C-alpha cells in the first residue's frame, strides 16, 4: 500500500469543460459562416482568414516572448480573435491592413491589458474600428460576391447615401431580395453576409449553453422594434426592419461579438440591458449617425458600461428574498 | 410543490459500483487497535471518562459531552483502554486528541444499553450527530427554539460515489420510517417528508410501499447539491431559509437518513452511536457498503474491499465534491464519515491543471446554488476587500464546490472562499473579545 498520499483540496472532480474546449466550440460554430464566405467571395476569403489567424498568433506569441509572460497561445483566444477579425474585413482589403488589424486587436486591445480576461473591449472589434477609421477607403471597398450582381457599397451604405440625396426618402431605392441577404449573396465583410450561417452557429452555441440567449435576443429584438417603430411613424424613410436585421454586422455582432465572455456582463439583468443598449446605439447610428453601420461602435460603447452593470446588478442570493 | 432549487451542477453519479452491494458488517479482530477521536462533532471536544487499563464493553460511555454543543462517545467494541489522551491521525487539523483502545477476543453483538426515556435525552446520551458529514449534535436540532412543522429526512445523497444512505433506505426501510415518525410525534410535527434523488428509484418504491401514507416520499431530480440542507428545503417546500436564519425559522428541521436511523436505534434498541455505514469505493477491488465500528482505521475498510486495485494516489473521505483528502490510512472511522473514495495513480490521467486566467464565462454564477457570484467574490477575496465581500454575501457560500467543478480555467474558487470566510470569522471573534 502506498505510504504517501496525494493531498488536494475539494472538489476532487471537474466537469472537463475547459477554456480551450469552449473556444474550440465557438470556432466550430463559425465554420458554416467561414464556408459561406469562401463560397461567396472565393479562395481569397479563406486566405484572409488564415492570414489574420496566423498574424494574431504570431503577435501574441511575440508579445509573450518579449514581456516574459508564459505562453498563452494554447488557450485558443488568439485564433478566435483572428477569425472574428477576418470576418469583419471586406475581401478586397490589402493583406498589410489585415495584419495591422491583427496587431491592434492582439497587442493594443488585449495583451497590454494583461491578456485574456483582462481586456475591457472586444479585441476583434477594436481592430476593426481602428482599421475602419484609419483606412476608410480600403475598409469600405466591398467587392461584389462572385454570383450576385450587386457590388460597391453595402445595402446599408447604399441606402444611407440614397436617402441623403433623396430628401430623406427611400422611395425608388432598390431593396435587395431578403433571400439573398439571408443566405449571404450580398456585399459586405466576409463573415457578415450570411444570416443563415451565423444563425446556425449562434443557435448551436445557445443549445450547447456556451452563450445565453439574453444578449442576442435583446440586441436583435431592440433593433427590430426601433426600426419598426420608426417606419410606422415615418413610412418610407428607412429600410424595412427585416432588411435592417439581415444587413451589416448585426447577426455576427449579436451572436459572436456582443456575447464575448470577457467584455459582456456576467448576470442576466446586465445582459438584458447590455443587449438592449447595443440595439439602441446601433439604430441611432444607422438612422441618424454619419456611419451607415453602428454595430461595432454600439458593442464597444456597451463594453465600457459592462463593469458598471456587473457592479450594480448583483444577482439575488439564496434566502435574500425576491 | 416540487419546485427546484436553482442552479447546481450535474457530475456523473458513479454510484453503480456500490449501490447494489448490501451493507456488510466488518469483523473485529482481537488485538485490533482503535483510535476514537474526541472531536467527532461540531463544538466542544468530549471529555474522556475512562482510564488506562480499564476494560470497556461495546456501547459503554468512554467520553462525555463537555458542554451544550458537544456529544457523548461510546466504545465501539469490547476492549481495553490503552490511553485516554493520545493523538490520532484525523482529517481535520491532521491530528486530534483521541482515546486509544485495543479490541479483546470476546466480540459479540451485545452492547451496554442506554437508560434514557425522553427522545431528546436518548439522542443526547447516544452521542448522535449529523451523520451526513456536518456532525452537528442532533439533540440540539431536536430541541428547537421555535416549533417546526415539517421533518425532512435527507436521503438525497447527491455526492457522486456515495451509496450508504441509499442502501440504508432499502435495507432498513421500516426502521427508518419508524425513526422519522418518532421524531414527528415527539416534536408534534405535521408532516414527515423523505427527500431523495431520482437515481434511487428502488429506495423510493420501498419507502412508499412501507410508508403507506404515514410519510411523504419525494423523488427529486439528480442534481448537485440537492442534499444541501437549504437547497433541499427549497426543492421540497419551495421556501428559502432567509439569510442568517435557521431552517427551523421556516418551520423545517432536516435530518440525514443515517442520523434518523441512529435515532431509531437509540430509542428502540437503546443503542448508542458506535457504528456507521461507510461506502468504500473508487479504486478498490470490490466496492462495498460497510457497517464499521467508529475508531477502526480506514485501512481495514479498504482491505475488507479486497484492497486497492493498483497504487493509491489519494484517498478522499466523504464524496469527491466536498470530501477531505486523507493524509494517512490510520485515520479512524468517525461519526460523519459517509464514504471513502480511493483514487489510483493510473486513473488520475494528468495532474489537475494549474489555474488559468478567468474568462468571465459566468459558468460559476450559473452553478452556484447559493445564488452568489463566485467570479466577483474571487476578485474581492484576492484583494482582501472585506466590505465588498460582505455586500456580495460571501458568508452565504455553502462551500459545495459547484463553482470549482465547472470552472473552465481551473481556478480554486471554493478554497479561496473557505480561507476568506475563516479569516472573516477570526477577525469577528477578535473584535468581540475586545480587540
Describe this structure in words.
The complex is a heterodimer of chains A (322) and B (435). Chain A has 322 residues and is an all-alpha fold. Chain A folds into 2 domains: 19-138, no CATH class; 145-310, no CATH class. Helices cover 60% and strands 0% of the residues of chain A. Chain A is built from 14 helices and no strands. Chain A has helices at 19-41, 43-67, 77-87, 95-108, 123-134, 136-139, 155-165, 178-183, 195-207, 214-233, 241-246, 250-257, 268-288, 295-312. In chain A, helix 2 (43-67) packs across helix 3 (77-87), helix 2 (43-67) runs parallel beside helix 4 and helix 3 (77-87) packs across helix 4 (95-108). The longest helix of chain A has 25 residues, at 43-67. Chain A is globular. Among the domains of chain B are: 119-268, Rossmann fold, CATH 3.40.50.11540; 363-432, no CATH class. Chain B has helices spanning 119-126, 138-141, 164-171, 173-187, 201-211, 229-237, 257-268, 298-304, 363-367, 374-382, 386-391, 402-406, 413-432, and strands spanning 23-25, 33-37, 47-48, 55-56, 61-64, 73-74, 79-89, 95-103, 150-155, 191-197, 216-220, 252-256, 275-282, 288-293, 312-317, 324-325, 339-344. The mean pLDDT of chain B is 91. At the A-B interface, helix 1 of A face helix 6, strand 15, strand 16 and helix 12 of B.
Amino acid at each position: 500500500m502506498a505510504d504517501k498520499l496525494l493531498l488536494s483540496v475539494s472538489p476532487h472532480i471537474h466537469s472537463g469543460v475547459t477554456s480551450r474546449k469552449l473556444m474550440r466550440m465557438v470556432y466550430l460554430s463559425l465554420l458554416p459562416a467561414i464556408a459561406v464566405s469562401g463560397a461567396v467571395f472565393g479562395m481569397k476569403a479563406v486566405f484572409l482568414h488564415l492570414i489574420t489567424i496566423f498574424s494574431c498568433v504570431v503577435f501574441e506569441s511575440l508579445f509573450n516572448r518579449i514581456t516574459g509572460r508564459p505562453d498563452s497561445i494554447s488557450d485558443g483566444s488568439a485564433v478566435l480573435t483572428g477569425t472574428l477579425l477576418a470576418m469583419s474585413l471586406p475581401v478586397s482589403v490589402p493583406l498589410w491592413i489585415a495584419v495591422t488589424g491583427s496587431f491592434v486587436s492582439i497587442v493594443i486591445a488585449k495583451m497590454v491589458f494583461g491578456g485574456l480576461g483582462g481586456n475591457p473591449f472586444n479585441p476583434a472589434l477594436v481592430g476593426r474600428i481602428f482599421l475602419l477609421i484609419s483606412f476608410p477607403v480600403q475598409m469600405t471597398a466591398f467587392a461584389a460576391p462572385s454570383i450576385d450582381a450587386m457590388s460597391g457599397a453595402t445595402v446599408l451604405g447604399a441606402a444611407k447615401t440614397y436617402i441623403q440625396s433623396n430628401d430623406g426618402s427611400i422611395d425608388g431605392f432598390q431593396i435587395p431580395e431578403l433571400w439573398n441577404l439571408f443566405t449571404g449573396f450580398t456585399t459586405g465583410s466576409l463573415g457578415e453576409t450570411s444570416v443563415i450561417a451565423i444563425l446556425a452557429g449562434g443557435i448551436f452555441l445557445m443549445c450547447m449553453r456556451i452563450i445565453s440567449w439574453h444578449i442576442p435576443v435583446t440586441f436583435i429584438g431592440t433593433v427590430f422594434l426601433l426600426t419598426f417603430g420608426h417606419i410606422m411613424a415615418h413610412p418610407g424613410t428607412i429600410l424595412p426592419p427585416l432588411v435592417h436585421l439581415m444587413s451589416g454586422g448585426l447577426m455576427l455582432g449579436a451572436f459572436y461579438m456582443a456575447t464575448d465572455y470577457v467584455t459582456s456582463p456576467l448576470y442576466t439583468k446586465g445582459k438584458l440591458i447590455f443587449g438592449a443598449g447595443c440595439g439602441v446605439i446601433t439604430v441611432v447610428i444607422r438612422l441618424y449617425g454619419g456611419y451607415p453601420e453602428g454595430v461595432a461602435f454600439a458593442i464597444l460603447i456597451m463594453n465600457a458600461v459592462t463593469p458598471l452593470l456587473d457592479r450594480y446588478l448583483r444577482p439575488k442570493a439564496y434566502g435574500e428574498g425576491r | 410543490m416540487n419546485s427546484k432549487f436553482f442552479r447546481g451542477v450535474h457530475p456523473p453519479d458513479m454510484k453503480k459500483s456500490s449501490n447494489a452491494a448490501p451493507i456488510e458488517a466488518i469483523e473485529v479482530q482481537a488485538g485490533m487497535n482503535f483510535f476514537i477521536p474526541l472531536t467527532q462533532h461540531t463544538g466542544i471536544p468530549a471529555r474522556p471518562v475512562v482510564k488506562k487499563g480499564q476494560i470497556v464493553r461495546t456501547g459503554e460511555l468512554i467520553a462525555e459531552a463537555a458542554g451544550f454543543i458537544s456529544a457523548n462517545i461510546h466504545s465501539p467494541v469490547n476492549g481495553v483502554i490503552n490511553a485516554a489522551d493520545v493523538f490520532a491521525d484525523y482529517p481535520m487539523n491532521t491530528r486530534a486528541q483521541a482515546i486509544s483502545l485495543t479490541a479483546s477476543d470476546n466480540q459479540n453483538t451485545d452492547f451496554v444499553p442506554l437508560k434514557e426515556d425522553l427522545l431528546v435525552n436518548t439522542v443526547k446520551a447516544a452521542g448522535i450527530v449529523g451523520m451526513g458529514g456536518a456532525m452537528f449534535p442532533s439533540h440540539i436540532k431536536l430541541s428547537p427554539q421555535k416549533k417546526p412543522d415539517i421533518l425532512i429526512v435527507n436521503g438525497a445523497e447527491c455526492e457522486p460515489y456515495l451509496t450508504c444512505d441509499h442502501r440504508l433506505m432499502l435495507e432498513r426501510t421500516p426502521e427508518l420510517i419508524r425513526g422519522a415518525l418518532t421524531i414527528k410525534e415527539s416534536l408534534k410535527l405535521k408532516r414527515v417528508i423523505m427527500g431523495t434523488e431520482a437515481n434511487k428509484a428502488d429506495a423510493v418504491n420501498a419507502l412508499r410501499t412501507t410508508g403507506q401514507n404515514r410519510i411523504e416520499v419525494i423523488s427529486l431530480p439528480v442534481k448537485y447539491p440537492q442534499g444541501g440542507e437549504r437547497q433541499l428545503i427549497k426543492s421540497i417546500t419551495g421556501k428559502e431559509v432567509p439569510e442568517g436564519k435557521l431552517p427551523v425559522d421556516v418551520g423545517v428541521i432536516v435530518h440525514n437518513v443515517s442520523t434518523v436511523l441512529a435515532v431509531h436505534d437509540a430509542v428502540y434498541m437503546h443503542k448508542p452511536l458506535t457504528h456507521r455505514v461507510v461506502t468504500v469505493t473508487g479504486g478498490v477491488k470490490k466496492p462495498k457498503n460497510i457497517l464499521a465500528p467508529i475508531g477502526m482505521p480506514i485501512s481495514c475498510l479498504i482491505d475488507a474491499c479486497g484492497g486497492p486495485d493498483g497504487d493509491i494516489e489519494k484517498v478522499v473521505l466523504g464524496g469527491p465534491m466536498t470530501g477531505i483528502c486523507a493524509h494517512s490510512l490510520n485515520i479512524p472511522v468517525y461519526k460523519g464519515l459517509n464514504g471513502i473514495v480511493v483514487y489510483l495513480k493510473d486513473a488520475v490521467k494528468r495532474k489537475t491543471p494549474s489555474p488559468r486566467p478567468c474568462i468571465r464565462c459566468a459558468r460559476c454564477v450559473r452553478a452556484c446554488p447559493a445564488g452568489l457570484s463566485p467570479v466577483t467574490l474571487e476578485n474581492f477575496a484576492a484583494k482582501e476587500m472585506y466590505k465588498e465581500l460582505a455586500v456580495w454575501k460571501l458568508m452565504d457560500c455553502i462551500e459545495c464546490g459547484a463553482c470549482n467543478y465547472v470552472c473552465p480555467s481551473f481556478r480554486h474558487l471554493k478554497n479561496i472562499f473557505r480561507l476568506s470566510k475563516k479569516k472573516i470569522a477570526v477577525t469577528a471573534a477578535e473584535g468581540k473579545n475586545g480587540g
